[in-house]
UniProtKB/TrEMBL annotation:
This is Major facilitator superfamily (MFS) profile domain-containing protein. One of its GO terms (molecular function) is transmembrane transporter activity. It is a multi-pass membrane protein. SUPFAM superfamilies: MFS general substrate transporter. Its main location: membrane. Residues 538-547 have a biased composition (Polar residues). GO terms for cellular component: membrane.
Length: 583
């Protein structure tokens, strides 16, 4: 008996699974650590501090000491003049036009630091660590450190959870996440703050994935997609919650405390969660596995028969998944598909984080914009499920349509930004975010079906790594690029999304198709309404396939058999690449 067959006995989505899904969803809500940087390190209006002029109002300080460029006061230069020699009357009578025109003043850097405008915020990491002018790039780098930590957490979580168990690993990563919160909170310099953000990402990525795997291993195969969508909706709710909290709490230290407190509460999961029975069986801890399964059955009003022998239960896939990343590139057709999938993952993640992290660059209220950025994901994720299974679109056209629409939205933003039509540009950016969300969720499902079973883990793991690398780049596409040319980020997003959208058309359609087990089958598979059988292939002496016949054969057993195989093949979990997740 395979482990997944047990769910027909104990229940695949009963009260017990709902209980676990709620616990996982609560953790997912607070897994948006990378997006908190928008408010913790919110940009502040600033100008050079002139100690001799601190008695003046901010407007008068700027008029007397700060040069103007392009109809705005500069933020990183001041007039090179010793204002301490002036009397109060001379300062009050200062005529900047005459002084500048007469060449009486030069320019100098902000040697005495900066004065900040605290109208919108009480304090942020920007003023605490001086992240302005030549150090302004460190704001984006803080987000990059979180994503880098997430990548490290994803890589290590699989190794650790396979060794010590899902629950223990989740709590260890949770401790690392709380440690990161504390280090960031108590930091007195940027280096320490950056280390805290790295730990925060490391712990956050590992916690999320370990919890996700634990829940998924307790959910029946037919319900895992629904739970995955639920996880994504919880993440989106977190994106809506954070701006609301930040709107009420304008101090970065208090905001970090509020963000950390729920994670301390999550340590109660030690008492509330079971260990994964699938993992327990793999480790030979059969009595513990039976105890967990009996508890699940009892809560679901089912009963686990006494005659089921835990030692006889299989937990792995029928086809060994021992391929490597190199195997994805050994054959020409698989090579092209892999590169297209990588491109799609890279662009999806780049646009997703590029738009999410740069709400401050859009017209309007940053808190409301960030709330909308999360809100649009809810209908987008639900619509994605419909589109993926709609015969007129399927997997391929959904992925292509999503990125082409996102690219078009970005291109439409360009003239709107240039003509200062801010509200319309913000609206189009939100449309773009919605389409990117559809594409991001769709590509995971599509990738799972594109990669054959023997290299599926390698394919999904490497794709996820590519996505996280682009997530590390994304923070620098927003704010820094707007200083070169305001619409430049949308030019980049629009161009890359359009390219990836058209490339997606090179992939075969996999909706209602029998999934491939080997690279040999995948190399000959072309998608469409018909699928090939294993008899259509032969293996060449070097271990790789050459196609012998190209006659189409109808799928045996009908769509029901295909979906049964699809469930079996796509729901064997590898901790490093699970999930419809943004992490």
């Amino acid at each position: 008996m395979h482990f997944d067959e047990l769910f027909a006995i104990i229940g695949g989505m009963g009260r017990y699974q709902i209980y676990l899904s709620v616990l996982g969803g609560l953790l997912s809500v607070w897994s948006v650590e990378v997006l908190t940087t928008t408010f913790i390190a919110a940009r502040l209006d600033h100008w050079c501090c002139v100690p001799a002029l601190q008695r003046l109002s901010p407007a008068r300080q700027k008029y007397v000491s700060i040069p103007r460029y392009d109809d705005a006061y500069e933020q990183c230069r001041r007039f090179d003049f010793n204002y301490s020699v002036l009397s109060d009357g001379e300062v009050d009578a200062w005529n900047r036009t005459a002084r500048v025109a007469g060449g009486y003043v030069g320019y100098s850097a902000c040697d005495d630091g900066w004065t900040y405008n605290f109208t919108d915020y009480e304090s942020t990491s920007v003023n605490r660590f001086g992240l302005v002018c030549g150090r302004s790039w460190l704001v984006q780098f803080a987000s990059t450190l979180v994503v880098a930590g997430t990548l490290l957490g994803a890589v290590t979580s699989g190794l650790i959870s396979d060794k010590i168990g899902r629950k223990k690993a989740m709590l260890i990563f949770l401790a690392v996440k709380v440690l990161g919160c504390v280090v960031s909170l108590l930091a007195t310099n940027y280096e320490t703050f950056g280390a805290g953000r790295l730990l925060l990402g490391l712990g956050g990525g590992g916690t999320y994935i370990c919890m996700y795997v634990l829940v998924m291993e307790m959910v029946g195969p037919h319900y895992r997609t629904h739970v995955g969508v639920g996880y994504q909706l919880a993440f989106s709710f977190g994106m809506m919650l954070i701006p609301g909290i930040a709107y009420l709490v304008r101090n970065d230290r208090w905001l970090q405390i509020i963000f950390a407190v729920p994670h301390v509460v999550f340590f109660s999961y030690w008492f509330l969660l079971p260990e994964s029975p699938r993992w327990l069986i793999v480790k030979g801890r059969y009595e513990e596995a039976r105890s967990v399964l009996e508890t699940a059955a009892r809560i679901n009003h089912k009963k686990l028969p006494e005659d089921i022998v835990m030692e006889d239960i299989k937990t792995g896939p029928d086809v060994e998944q021992n391929g490597t990343v190199l195997d994805l590139f050994r054959t020409p057709r698989m090579r092209i598909r892999t590169l297209v999938v990588y491109t799609h993952w890279f662009v999806d993640c780049l646009m997703y984080y590029g738009l999410s992290l740069n709400m401050a660059d859009l017209s309007g209220n940053v808190f409301f914009n960030s709330f909308l950025s999360g809100a649009v994901e809810v209908p987008a994720n639900l619509l994605c499920v419909v589109l993926l299974n709609w015969p007129l679109l399927g997997r391929r056209f959904t992925c292509s349509f999503a990125l082409l629409a996102a690219g078009l939205s970005s291109f439409i933003c360009i003239p709107l930004i240039l003509t200062d039509t801010g509200t319309a540009a913000t609206a189009m950016a939100m449309f773009g975010k919605a389409f990117v969300t559809i594409g991001y969720s769709a590509i995971y499902v599509f990738s799972t079906e594109i990669f054959p079973t023997e290299v599926r883990n390698a394919g999904l793991g490497s794709s996820s790594t590519i996505a996280r690398i682009s997530g590390m780049v994304a923070p620098f596409i927003g704010g820094p690029m707007t200083k070169i040319w305001k619409p430049l980020p949308h030019v980049i997003f629009g161009t890359m999304a359009s390219l990836a959208g058209f490339l997606a058309l090179l992939l075969p359609e996999t909706l209602n198709q029998e999934l491939c087990d080997t690279v040999a089958e995948a190399e000959a598979f072309r998608g469409g309404r018909k699928s090939r059988k294993k008899d259509d292939y032969q293996t060449s002496p070097n271990g790789w396939s050459s196609r012998t016949e190209q006659k189409d054969k109808t799928i045996s057993g009908g769509n029901a058999d295909i979906e049964e195989k699809r469930e079996h093949l796509t729901n064997n979990f590898d901790d490093e690449n699970v999930g419809m997740t943004r992490l």
